[in-house]
Write a structure and sequence with these properties.
β4 and β5 form a beta hairpin. α2 packs antiparallel against α3. The protein has 204 residues and is α+β, with helices and mostly antiparallel strands. 60% of the residues lie in helices and 15% in strands. It starts with a helix and ends with a helix.
């Protein structure tokens, strides 16, 4: 409809948009389209991040389940290993029990034979302890070491034996190089007597 016809029919025509405003409107449309594209990319990235997060959560659950299974298997292995070691130890102990029972039921008055039997039993017991990694510490004559020795008293008046083990009351043992039981010992030390000056200072 031309302007003359519109005027004749009484229809109002919208004023034409200035060129500058048309340019601004075009720029706004472009920015709007650009914003739409950026929003679309952002939605895509968000969806990808959600997918990755779901995958990470699944991996975490799988890793946790694997760790739980590994811990259970390790616990079963340790329990089984402990049971096997205990069984082997007891099996090695049974022949010693048998020999002790035979020695107790022996009616012979032969003291030498009885002593010989006890020596055999003791040798078996020591061999079994060695197989388990148990070693006996040699303390007599050694310098006193509170880590490996337990002093039960002091004796002697020779400076040569001062600070040394002069008697072992009960042997000490180690398990694979670690202390199992300290040796109970008597430690040598010179006898310290009070001087006359000390006696006067102490008084009656």
């Amino acid at each position: 409809m031309c302007a003359q016809e519109a005027e004749q029919q009484g229809v109002a025509m919208a004023p034409p948009i200035p060129t500058s405003q048309q340019a601004d409107l075009h720029v706004c449309r472009q920015e709007l389209e650009q914003a739409k594209e950026e929003l679309k990319r952002a939605c895509t990235e968000l969806e990808r991040a959600r997918h990755d997060l779901a995958g990470q959560q699944d991996l975490q659950l799988r890793a946790r389940a694997d760790l739980d299974n590994w811990q259970k298997r390790l616990q079963r292995y340790l329990q089984r290993s402990l049971q096997d070691n205990k069984k082997a130890f007891l099996q090695a102990l049974l022949p010693i029990v048998d020999n002790l029972e035979r020695a107790l039921t022996e009616r012979s008055a032969d003291i030498a034979g009885l002593r010989s039997g006890i020596e055999v039993i003791l040798r078996q017991l020591k061999e079994m302890l060695q197989q388990q990694g148990v070693t006996r510490s040699e303390a007599e004559g050694a310098l006193f070491d509170p880590t490996w020795h337990e002093a039960m008293g002091m004796a002697g008046d020779s400076s040569e034996w001062a600070g040394r083990v002069i008697q072992v009351l009960e042997a000490g043992y180690a398990l694979n190089g670690e202390l199992l039981r300290p040796a109970k010992v008597i430690v040598g030390g010179p006898v310290v007597t009070a001087s006359p000056l000390e006696d006067v200072a102490e008084g009656p």
